[in-house]
Design goal:
three-stranded mixed sheet, alpha+beta, disordered C terminus, six-stranded mixed sheet, disordered N terminus
C-alpha cells in the first residue's frame, strides 16, 4: 500500500510539472559536491601573496586583471545554482568584514570534499554535520586563545595587518607603499569614542604616472577646477576656505510663473534688479576677503560653491584674486569643512571669520581635459584623500579594490582591539587541537570532527602550493614545529616554519570568526540536501 502511495505522489509531481528535473539522495549530494569542488578549483590559485591573477574579459571586451576573490565572484557569471549560493555567501563575508572571500570558498569546498570520503563509506550526512557543529564551537574557543596584542594595537600592528591584506591583492612594492598611506589616513579621521567612518577617506583616481606614485593627500582633491582663465592657479601661505551653498547666477522661479512688461525700459529695470541681487552677494564675498586678508600677499581666499556662479560674478571674483569653484559635489562640501575647519553656509547675510576654514596651499592640476583642485596642508584634517595613480583603467580599478580591503582590515583591527597570527597559524593550531578533542566525543560524530580538522589544513596547503613548495612537506614541517604557547605559520620564501607575530604577518579576528561561522553552516546545509528539484519553464506559464 505504501509503495503504491509513493508512486501516486511521484506521478502527481510529474503531472504538476513534467519538465521538472529531480535529483535524489546520492545524486543530489554529488551535484552539490561537484559545485563546491569546482568553485574551489577556480579560486585556489589566488590565495595568499604568491597567488596568481585571473583575467576577466567582459562581452564588450573590457579587461579586469585581479586575484581578489570578491571581485572574481561578483564578475564571474556562475550558472550552477549551488556554486552561485556559495559565491553569494563568500561575497556576503566580504560585505560584512571586508576580507576572507577566497578562504571561505576553499574551506566550504574542502569540508564537503572531506565529508564525501565518509558519506561514500555509508556514514549518514547528519552525523557528519553534528561533528562539524561541535568542531565549530571548539574553533571559536581556539580563536579567543590565539588573540595577540589585546588592547595594544598600535600603528605598527595596524601597518602589519594592512600589509598582510594588501600583499594578497597587489604586488609587494605597491602594497608596502599603500600600507603607510592607508594607516595614516585612518588614524587622521579617527575620532575618540566615535565609530570610524571610512567614507571620510576620499579615493580619487588620476590616470597618469605609475601605480607606485599613489599617495595620501592630507586634505581634499576635487575633480573640477576654477571656471575663469584669469583666476590664480596656485595660492600659498594662509588660504581661507569659504564653503557655501548660495546661488551666484540667475535662477528660475520655483513655481511656474510669467513676468509681463509693457516697455523695454521696464524689462531693463527688471534685469538690473535681478543682477543687483547677485552683485550684492558677490560684493559680500569680496568684502569678507578684504576684511580677513587686507593687503597681506600671503593671505588669500578660496570659494567653493555647491550651486552655480555666472560669468560676470566669476569675473568680479577673479579681479580680486579669489579662486572660485562652482557646482562642487555635495560629498566634497561635507569633507571640506572636516578637512579645513569652518562651516558650510547657506546665506551670505552673516558672513564672519568663524565660518572660514584654513589650508596652507591650494592649486589646480590639468590632466588632458580634466581639472583637479588640491586643498593641502590642512592643520588637523578629519577627512583625507588617497590619490590613486596608474597608467591604465584596469590598474586603477585593481588598486581601488585593494585599498577598500586594506581600509577594512585596519578598521577591523581598531574595532577588535586585537589581532591573530597569520600565515596559516590558526588553521594548523585548530586542526591539531580538534584531533585531540575528538577523543572526548562519543559516537560517530567524532568522524565529522576529524573531517573538519583535515579541511582546515587546506589554507596552509594552498599557501605553500601557490608559493611553489610541496603542500605535504609544509604541513608536516608546521605540525612538527608546533610548541605549546607559541604559534607557527609558513614562511612562503623558504617553505619552513616561522613565528608570524614576529614576522608581522597578522590577520583580523572578526574575519576568521565570520569565516568559521559561515563555512560550517553552508557546508552542513549542502550536505543535508537530499533532493534537488529544478522546475522547467512550463510551471511558470501554467
Amino acid at each position: 500500500v505504501i509503495l503504491l502511495l509513493n508512486r501516486a505522489q511521484m506521478s502527481a509531481i510529474k503531472v504538476l510539472n513534467p519538465k521538472a528535473e529531480i535529483a535524489r539522495a546520492a545524486q543530489a549530494l554529488a551535484v552539490n559536491m561537484a559545485a563546491a569542488k569546482g568553485l574551489q578549483d577556480v579560486l585556489r590559485t589566488n590565495l595568499g601573496p604568491r597567488g596568481t591573477m585571473k583575467m576577466l574579459v567582459s562581452g564588450a571586451g573590457d579587461i579586469k586583471i585581479t586575484k581578489d576573490g570578491n571581485v572574481l565572484l561578483h564578475e564571474m557569471q556562475i550558472q550552477h545554482p549551488t556554486a552561485s549560493l556559495i559565491a553569494r555567501v563568500a561575497t556576503a563575508q566580504d560585505d560584512i568584514t571586508g576580507d576572507g572571500t577566497t578562504s571561505n570558498v576553499l574551506i566550504i569546498g574542502e569540508l564537503i570534499k572531506q565529508a564525501e570520503l565518509y558519506v561514500s563509506e555509508g556514514l549518514h550526512p547528519r552525523l557528519i554535520t553534528e561533528g562539524f557543529m561541535l568542531a565549530k564551537d571548539q574553533c571559536l574557543k581556539y580563536l579567543d586563545d590565539m588573540k595577540v596584542l589585546v588592547g595594544k594595537v598600535d600603528r605598527e600592528a595596524l601597518c602589519n595587518v594592512a600589509r598582510t591584506s594588501l600583499r594578497s591583492k597587489v604586488h609587494h612594492e605597491l602594497a608596502d607603499k599603500l600600507t603607510d598611506s592607508l594607516v595614516d589616513a585612518v588614524l587622521a579621521i579617527q575620532v575618540p569614542d566615535k565609530p570610524l567612518d571610512l567614507h571620510m577617506i576620499e579615493i580619487m583616481e588620476m590616470m597618469h604616472k605609475m601605480d607606485v606614485d599613489t599617495q595620501l593627500v592630507k586634505g581634499i582633491v576635487m575633480d573640477h577646477g576654477a571656471r575663469h582663465p584669469d583666476m590664480p592657479k596656485k595660492l600659498e601661505g594662509e588660504v581661507f576656505v569659504l564653503t557655501c551653498n548660495v546661488s551666484l547666477e540667475y535662477e528660475k522661479t520655483e513655481v511656474n510663473s510669467g513676468f509681463f512688461y509693457k516697455s523695454a525700459e521696464e524689462r531693463e529695470k527688471f534685469v538690473k534688479c535681478e543682477r543687483m541681487i547677485i552683485d550684492e552677494r558677490v560684493k559680500q564675498v569680496i568684502a569678507l576677503k578684504k576684511e580677513v586678508c587686507g593687503d597681506d600677499k600671503n593671505k588669500s581666499l578660496l570659494l567653493v560653491n555647491q550651486k552655480g556662479i555666472d560669468p560676470m560674478s566669476l569675473d568680479a571674483l577673479a579681479k580680486e584674486g579669489i579662486i572660485a569653484l562652482r557646482r562642487a559635489k555635495r560629498r566634497n562640501m561635507e569633507r571640506l569643512t572636516l578637512a579645513c575647519g569652518g562651516q558650510a553656509v547657506n546665506s551670505f547675510d552673516e558672513l564672519s571669520l568663524d565660518v572660514l576654514g584654513k589650508c596652507g596651499m591650494t592649486f589646480e592640476t590639468v590632466l588632458g581635459e580634466d581639472k583637479y583642485t588640491f586643498v593641502e596642508d590642512c592643520q588637523n584634517p578629519r577627512s583625507v584623500t588617497v590619490l590613486v595613480k596608474g597608467p591604465n583603467k584596469h590598474t586603477l580599478t585593481q588598486i581601488k579594490d585593494a585599498i577598500h580591503d586594506g581600509l577594512r582590515a585596519i578598521k577591523n583591527a581598531i574595532e577588535d582591539d586585537c589581532v591573530l597570527p597569520g600565515a596559516g597559524a590558526f588553521e594548523v593550531y585548530a586542526s591539531q587541537q580538534l584531533t585531540k578533542y575528538k577523543a572526548q566525543v562519543q559516537g560517530r560524530a567524532k568522524l565529522g570532527i576529524q573531517a573538519y580538522a583535515d579541511a582546515l589544513l587546506i589554507i596552509p596547503k594552498v599557501l605553500a602550493q601557490n608559493a611553489g613548495h610541496d603542500a605535504q612537506d609544509a604541513i608536516v614541517t608546521l605540525i612538527d614545529a608546533q610548541k605549546p604557547g607559541s604559534w607557527t605559520g609558513i614562511d612562503l620564501k623558504s617553505g619552513k616554519a616561522m613565528d608570524p607575530v614576529a614576522a608581522g604577518v597578522l590577520d583580523n579576528y572578526n574575519v576568521k570568526k565570520q569565516l568559521i561561522h559561515s563555512c560550517t553552516v553552508i557546508a552542513s546545509n549542502l550536505l543535508l540536501v537530499d533532493e534537488i528539484m529544478k522546475a522547467g519553464m512550463s510551471s511558470l506559464k501554467g
